[in-house]
Amino acid sequence: MKSKPTKKEVVTAFRTREILAAARNVMERLGVEATTMDEIAQAAGVAKGTIYLYFPSKEELIQALMSQVGENMFRDLKAIMDEPHSPRDKLPRVLAVLVEYLERERALFPIYMRDFAQWMLPGGRGRFRRIQELEGQILSLLNCLFTEGVASGEFIPADPKLLTFLLRSLVRGVGFYGITEGRSDAIKEALPVLTTFILSGFTPRPAPIAEVHS
């Protein structure tokens, strides 16, 4: 049986959420690189020293934000996977969630791609362990979706892992498109194009109807 959290644990969790929410607001307004710990402390209504009690550095605060995003994304995708619908019906909703997070987390996306590139460097796996775990869990959900869809004939007969990585790469491409265009609506605009492209490419084409000759 899970023990009831102590008052200190409740206060710590509440304060952490407040600081992260304040950091997110400031970063969305100023950009991640331009945001300082002083500005986050001011937005959170606490002393700068209090921020450092919870997050020893700005980089650790950013990693906490990234983990929070990953946990929320996993939760939302898992909810879709648990519904009693076919893989073909779930896929557009999965795409919508992934693109929604791209749009919502525009400020953090460049940091995610920076960290993603560093995962493969010596020491990178230890530094970004939690984010890598969440990325792995999300990829596992997508892989299960494609495995089920391939087995049922709803998706093309390809390696589910390949379809998973293709999907994630295409979604990241939409993120780059949003950055390049610099418009708030660019990512949302890409969703119908991405959905059409994925569904037409990942699902089998119906067999042509044979002509009847009299």
Measured as a percent range, the helix fraction is over 70%
Assign an overall shape: globular
> What's the total count of β strands?
0
C-alpha termini separation: 75 Å
Unreliable stretches (pLDDT < 50, length at least 5) are none
CATH overall fold name of the largest domain:
Tetracycline Repressor, domain 2
Overall average pLDDT:
86
**CATH evolutionary superfamily of the largest domain:** Tetracycline Repressor, domain 2
Number of helical segments with 4 or more residues: 10
Strand residue percentage: under 5%
The name of the CATH architecture of the largest domain is Orthogonal Bundle
The radius of gyration over CA amounts to 21 Å
What's the SSE pattern? HHHHHHHHHH
For this structure, what is the CATH class of the largest domain?
A: Mainly Alpha
